[in-house]
């Protein structure tokens, strides 16, 4: 029987606990640091300790941290390895052990505890980090051609524009060793998957970009639980692991499709639902409610994406015959049923989570339906005027954008329905409107300052004003919050 996700988590914690690490609970998805939007990595709760602002309570710790990365939202379902919600297993040293122990333990964990064959593992190091090279090569015994030196983008981890940072070293799994050793690019994700990142956190990046050595050298690591589960359970992607697949199955049931025999687009849609439903359940559980600002806007966008995606899959109403009911609570029940070892508080909050989802979904469906009506009118107009002028019927880009922006109407649905009626959509015009909107909204959304991790990307995602129009006809929500 393949190893369960739960047992991988438990064994990771146990491995480091028996090497002197204190097992600490996951922090909330809403960080204590008010300047940070969401918890994107295990290190976040320890940031003040790394910076020396707060004394360490223990020399080293191990956690399984629930994380949200909205910068990966577009990757969900498209790559085999990215989620918006995932668990990051991490071991941390607060001025205790450093590079040598971190590397040796990571190798022991990977090859002995989890039993991955050494010849399937590749290492990346920061280009200037000869010390890491020596440890991997001379002490651990990884052959030279399986250690890749990489630049700052890949192998110098910064927790944000400023803050603790340092060179890092990552372990990759090779799914296609038969391809050999020459011309290898670790970025080729059909062949490789990064799963463990070891950050040698020894600097503080200042406002001016300069690096100030920290008083003590720290270790910050992250191993993606779903990624390790994918490897050990020998499934083609993270979504088919026992951590997520039951949620996908529930969604398939409601959509009346079979995952295994579904086409690729439907599979991707099911993965999106499987992913986003986890994100929204844990976010709501941690106290984030749908709104038009900051974290609330993240939840709102994710719920709406689930609802739209569900409709693309043909889920009507609650999917079991009640046209005026919501389906997201039914899938959320599955997420909650799987939550025990991820966050034991979720079960007790189930009522509120389901209620919040139901309300948000039903409200959004109303908006969508109003949009559908409007689309029918627009198409009728387009057909009529084309007939008069003897032209090809065309839906203006600004109309498609209005549907998208104000009614949360995915442009793919607009084009699909239009096509059925023999109307083409002016996508160039749509893109222009979209760009304008993006630029305008940038300022309005700079309310949440982000310092941590891929901040720029998160900001971009947040300020993507899908749906903003309808709910903030007055823009009041933004100003008030
Ligand atoms: P990738 O290059 O695959 O996007 P990353 O370099 O951005 O990953 P890190 O910031 O190094 O990831 O995070 C540490 C570990 O957390 C990764 O090695 C991976 O196992 C896991 N991880 C990161 N992002 C995700 C995600 N979106 N979904 C699932 N696991 C993730
Ligand atoms: Mg990434
Ligand atoms: Mg990476
Ligand atoms: Mg990485």
UniProtKB/TrEMBL annotation:
<protein>
    <recommendedName>
        <fullName>Probable alanine--tRNA ligase, chloroplastic</fullName>
    </recommendedName>
</protein>
<comment type="similarity">
    <text>Belongs to the class-II aminoacyl-tRNA synthetase family. Alax-L subfamily.</text>
</comment>
<comment type="function">
    <text>Catalyzes the attachment of alanine to tRNA(Ala) in a two-step reaction: alanine is first activated by ATP to form Ala-AMP and then transferred to the acceptor end of tRNA(Ala). Also edits incorrectly charged tRNA(Ala) via its editing domain.</text>
</comment>
<feature type="domain" description="Alanyl-transfer RNA synthetases family profile">
    <location>
        <begin position="3"/>
        <end position="481"/>
    </location>
</feature>
<comment type="subunit">
    <text>Monomer.</text>
</comment>
